[in-house]
Amino acid sequence: MSQNLKWLYANRALRSFATAFLTVIFPLYLAVSGYSAARIGMVLTLSGIISVLLLAGVGIFGDKVGRKRAIIILSLLSFLGSLVMTTSRDFWLIVLASGLGGVGKGGGAGSGGSWGPLFPAEQPLLAEAVTPANRTKVFGRISFVGVLAGALGSLVAAVPELLHEHGISWGTSYQLLFGFSAVLSIFMVMVAWPIRESRSPHAMRATEADESVPINVKQLTGRLGLTNALNGLGFGFLGPLLTYWFYRRYGAGPAELGTLYTIINLATAMPYLLSSKISQYLGAVRAVTYTRTISIIWLALMPFMPTFWLAGLSYLLRMVFNSLGMPARQSYAMGVADQRYRSRVAAFSNLPSQLTSMLSPVIGGSEMESFLDFPIYGAVFFMTLNVLAYYFAFRHIVPPEEQNGPHPTRHLTHPVVK
């Protein structure tokens, strides 16, 4: 199934390209449409409910019917969501469109597009296309592709400002980009079509399951769910609210933000390729723990920066270190999961993150009215708890590729609990 990689890479590139400029322009579009910070937070929270339902649906649908079909359906929903955004500013239509289409959602600059309901369909297909020894490397490569595409997409965020300088209204300028994202969604369907699945994972007999997995599905989902819930609370304070924070704190417009996010995407490209080396040396769990700890330190320094570009540099370093551990974390989850239920594990372990991330924007948006830096400090607090919880939950659970490696806890692999 290695031929699937090129189509998965292409799909990620298109998604990351669109996500990069949508993440920048979506909250700014709401702002020029008359939405307050609290109302912007409310839009993100309500649309997040729809995203949660989609995430759960993909987890079940992907394992039972097929992950390729899930990718195609989500791409079509993204097309519809973007199309609605080109014609309406109505509150409830915006909520519905952004929820179904993932408009303005992505994981932020440097994330490589690894976010949202499509995640549980894509990750198992990647894991099945390669050997366990090469899994983290492939996860790093697809993030590398995504982040470079995101760098190009971030440049597109400057288009509304250029159009406005030529007499086109801000609202119309933003809506034209939503139309462009609808076109990209059609291309996403086209590159997903050639992906081949020999049969649905649900059709596998129980005897075909990998009996060497070190933890059962319920335990794995529960532990990932707990750690992701904390991470979701932290990320919810950032996301699109971060572009609004830059806008309020430093007066940064779409052109400056687009340039910053382009630089961040380019700077975080190489760390994705280095992730497998760090994971081989430290072990996946320690690689994730160490790199995330350093990234949180840089995030905590942002409010102390006197200028936009110094704050941007701090955020860039935060994303560089976060990127070093991201492929290891994603690969690790797939490596220790039963292959029959990988979509379910990816979806339901991330559901708590989606749920908790819905709470943070409305809280952060409201608190920004009186304490502008509140979202940054909220993110630091919960992301720190996430790192601690992740390490203690998985420090003794070793994926197959580390069984004979230099990992210091390889002898502590747990048996599968049935």
UniProtKB/TrEMBL annotation:
<feature type="transmembrane region" description="Helical">
    <location>
        <begin position="228"/>
        <end position="247"/>
    </location>
</feature>
<dbReference type="InterPro" id="IPR011701">
    <property type="entry name" value="MFS"/>
</dbReference>
<feature type="domain" description="Major facilitator superfamily (MFS) profile">
    <location>
        <begin position="4"/>
        <end position="403"/>
    </location>
</feature>
<dbReference type="GO" id="GO:0005886">
    <property type="term" value="C:plasma membrane"/>
</dbReference>
<dbReference type="GO" id="GO:0022857">
    <property type="term" value="F:transmembrane transporter activity"/>
</dbReference>
<feature type="transmembrane region" description="Helical">
    <location>
        <begin position="259"/>
        <end position="275"/>
    </location>
</feature>
<keyword id="KW-0472">Membrane</keyword>
<dbReference type="Pfam" id="PF07690">
    <property type="entry name" value="MFS_1"/>
</dbReference>
<keyword id="KW-0812">Transmembrane</keyword>
<protein>
    <submittedName>
        <fullName>MFS transporter</fullName>
    </submittedName>
</protein>
<feature type="transmembrane region" description="Helical">
    <location>
        <begin position="296"/>
        <end position="317"/>
    </location>
</feature>
<feature type="transmembrane region" description="Helical">
    <location>
        <begin position="138"/>
        <end position="159"/>
    </location>
</feature>
<dbReference type="InterPro" id="IPR020846">
    <property type="entry name" value="MFS_dom"/>
</dbReference>
<feature type="transmembrane region" description="Helical">
    <location>
        <begin position="174"/>
        <end position="195"/>
    </location>
</feature>
<keyword id="KW-1133">Transmembrane helix</keyword>
<dbReference type="InterPro" id="IPR036259">
    <property type="entry name" value="MFS_trans_sf"/>
</dbReference>
<feature type="transmembrane region" description="Helical">
    <location>
        <begin position="38"/>
        <end position="62"/>
    </location>
</feature>
<feature type="transmembrane region" description="Helical">
    <location>
        <begin position="374"/>
        <end position="393"/>
    </location>
</feature>
<keyword id="KW-0813">Transport</keyword>
<feature type="transmembrane region" description="Helical">
    <location>
        <begin position="12"/>
        <end position="32"/>
    </location>
</feature>
